[in-house]
Amino acid sequence: MNISLRPSQASDAETVAELIMCSAPDILTFVFGHGDDVKPREFLQSSLAQPDGQFGYANHIVAISDSNIAGVYCRWHDKLPADFDRATVDSIHRFFGIEEAMNIMFRSRESTRFFTPPQAHQLCIGHLAVDMKYRGHGIARAMLADAIAFARQIAKTHVVLDVALNNQPAIGLYLANGFIRGASTDGYLRMIYVL
Fold it and tell me: What sections of the chain are H helices per DSSP?
């Protein structure tokens, strides 16, 4: 199977939104839908049509196989553009309005308090997901290798990601690709790759 990776584009928004929803459905539904999984999908599609912020297309890499988007991941580190957080908040405010944006910020802080932001020596992987029909064909392995190569390029010494403790297939994948177990908190495990 031929796999290539490229930066995401605005035209990828619908497919990438569905994949991101698969990466953390419980958290995304709680934070952006308050229990309703339709609103988070709509928000992600809207945000992924724009370049900036945590949910912007410019922050995501897609894996292509058979001319289709087969997977997605994002990467961030301590040297993100100064307007990264502002663009994230703006996308939430534009889509939901000020009152619901404030509720989302509260729910986001509540649900992500156990995620540690990347330190200066770390590259963090997020939103990693592979379309069901492409699983088992090396898509995730290719995305992990891409993230590790990028970490080397920007002189990081570790690649980290957080995974739900009950997601044993993903944990097995990360261990098989050289990651080790780190600390666990509130149902999530920090996985670490040492370069």
Answer: 13-23, 25-28, 38-48, 84-96, 98-112, 139-153, 168-176
- Using CA atoms, how far residue 143 sits from 39, 65, 70, 81, 89, in Å, is 28, 12, 11, 23, 27
| Tokens encoding 147 | 């993230």
What tens digit of pLDDT does each residue of 33-89 get? 988 999 999 999 999 999 999 999 999 999 999 999 999 999 988 877 778 888 999
pTM of the model: 0.93
Closest Cα to residue 192, out of 162, 169, 170, 165? 162
In the DSSP assignment, the letter for residue 29 is I
Q: How far is CA 180 from CA 55, 87, 156, 167, 169, in A?
A: 27, 33, 17, 15, 15
Q: How far is CA 135 from CA 11, 33, 74, 132, 157, in A?
A: 23, 27, 18, 5, 28
The phi-psi region of residue 34 (left if phi > 0; otherwise alpha if psi is between -120 and 50; otherwise beta) is: left
**CA distance linking residue 158 with residue 121, whole number of Å:** 6
